[in-house]
Amino acid sequence: MQAGVLECPKCQTALPPAGLNTGQFFRCPGCHSEVQAEAFPALVRPLPRGAAGEAVMVPGESACFYHEARKAVAVCDACGRFLCALCDCHLNTSHFCPGCLNAGRQDRRIQELETVRPLYGRQAFVLSLLPLFITGLLALFLALRYWKAPLSLVKPQRWMLPAAVFFGALQTLAFTLLFYRLFAG
Amino acid sequence: MENPSSPAYQRLTGAGYRRLLPGWAIFLLFFVIGIFALLLRGRRVQLWLGPDHLLLVEWDGYKEYYKRFRFADIQGVTIRKTHERMAFNLLLALLIALLGLLAWTVEDPVGVGIFLGIAAVVFIVLVANTALGSTCQCYLRTAVQVEDLACLNRVPRARAALDRLRPLIQEAQGAWPQAQAAATPSPAPSVAPAGEQNAFSATSG
Q1: Has the ipTM of the complex gone over 0.90?
Q2: Is the separation of the CB atoms in B203 and B182 below 8 Å?
Q3: Fewest CB within 10 angstroms: A11, A88, B46, B141, which?
Q4: pLDDT, tens digit, 9 for 90 and up, residues B96-128
Q5: Residue B81 and residue A33: Cβ atoms within 8 Å?
Q6: Does residue A38 belong to the interface with chain B, where contact is any CB pair within 8 Å?
Q7: Of A33, A100, A154, the CB nearest to B48
Q8: Nearest in space to A160 (alpha carbons), one of A143, A144, A136
Q9: pLDDT by residue (tens digit) across A120-141?
């Protein structure tokens, strides 16, 4: 991936600037595929350089919790520790230390870092509709165990958990009655 | 640390699959393993617009996978036309011809009706496939990755999505750097909003 140029997705040839942002398809000079490309200012802007942190010059000056010789420039929004420029992790408008950032990602407390979310409602609902007896019990377990688990980020589908409880209970009841009739009756 | 209020997301046009196999292979497998071929479609992909980022969501049925692209980080979007629509249309046309041939050779009027009925359904699929527009692959580029936007698999859809994204990205990124604007000659963009100056339009006459 070359910096500052858009490339053809097929042959990785740099696309000619004359073809960009025209709203029309043009032929890639490398593979002759029809390509439309839109470039934005971030393409040519240099990436901000990371800071190493300034040294503490005056005795008693606030220092980084992780680096005693570095000057503190921010406070972690989660644990309140002082952080130098090197340890200060920006996330939108918040500042975190590396430890809290990692903990927040693992515990799913920082939503911006969440990359996977199990859909327990959907799992329970599908199980509740499979007529295999054990599936009804599993659906009930999943629905009740994860009743307060976060739902889908974009399509919450709140009806699925109550529906899973209803159909799971119905299925368990039906199978219980069936077994009772078969073996006890 | 916790963000109690989830950002509101708006659905962006298009839905597709991050495929395990190409579309034509799934179509052919349909005749071998039937409806189970749909299990090989892969993860379903959709795009959602957040307040300051584009969210790419993939479903495998029981989990959601997220990728976030801040508008300020998007460097470019590329759309490349593919020949998938033409290949699929060719396949459907062959199927219609085969069904027509079978209907012509069968003497039983019920059989003729069945074959012509199936041919009519396939013809409707062919017309729909043609009407949806050219197939394409759409890619989004940031400083560190090139992401395949599998849900924008038709040119009209990809262009509609780009039309919605463009003003948001331009608002987040501001104007083009002047040095770049002066250095790069290009024709005027037909799609940029009036008054916007960018590196590829600033020097056009």
Answers
A1: no
A2: yes
A3: A11
A4: 999 999 999 988 889 999 999 999 999 999 999
A5: yes
A6: yes
A7: A154
A8: A143
A9: 999 999 999 998 889 999 999 9
